[in-house]
Design brief:
- It is a single chain.
- This protein has a single domain, classed as 3-Layer(aba) Sandwich (Rossmann fold).
- 39% of the residues lie in helices and 20% in strands.
- The protein contains six helices and seven strands.
- Strand 4, helix 3 and strand 5 form a beta-alpha-beta unit.
- The protein is globular, with a radius of gyration of 14 Å.
């Protein structure tokens, strides 16, 4: 399964959904290095209406979604499981590539079932071989081993 994302394409839009400030910044920095011309945003917490508008209006190429959004308590539709958010995105924007990210396999399995193309553990994402682990040399998304 290959999905091509050209790292030199300035029309690429990436959204990082992560409620932990430090983790979100690390993910944003890693993606910015790999996709220097992409329009990359990170979000911690926002209402359902705002998120729905963003997904529909921005037509993101790629969205990374945290498996557990503990800081979203005031938005029960998304609270606890990133898999709910994956389903929501796939319903509103089926062409968007979703990468699920979590610290545990339980959340990753649920996100795959909900429609994520691939899931990775956060610790693996932050290791030095990030792009080598997630992408082929031409930056085509590949299945993780």
């Amino acid at each position: 399964m290959n999905v091509n994302i050209n790292p030199k394409d300035s029309s690429v839009k990436i959204l990082v959904v992560e409620d932990d400030d430090d983790m979100r910044e690390l993910i944003l920095k890693a993606l910015s290095k790999s996709f220097p011309l992409a329009n990359i945003h990170g979000f911690k917490n926002f209402g359902q209406e705002n998120f729905e508008e963003m997904v529909i209006e921005n037509k993101y190429t790629l969205i990374t979604i945290d498996g557990f959004l503990g800081n979203w308590k005031e938005h029960p539709i998304f609270y606890v499981y990133g898999a709910r958010l994956v389903s929501f995105v796939k319903e509103k924007s089926p062409e968007t590539i979703i990468v699920g990210m979590s610290s545990t396999d339980d959340f990753n399995e649920a996100m795959m079932e909900a429609g994520a193309l691939v899931t990775i553990k956060k610790g693996d994402f932050l290791e030095n071989g990030l792009i080598k682990k997630l992408f082929n040399s031409d930056l085509s998304l590949k299945e993780m081993d």
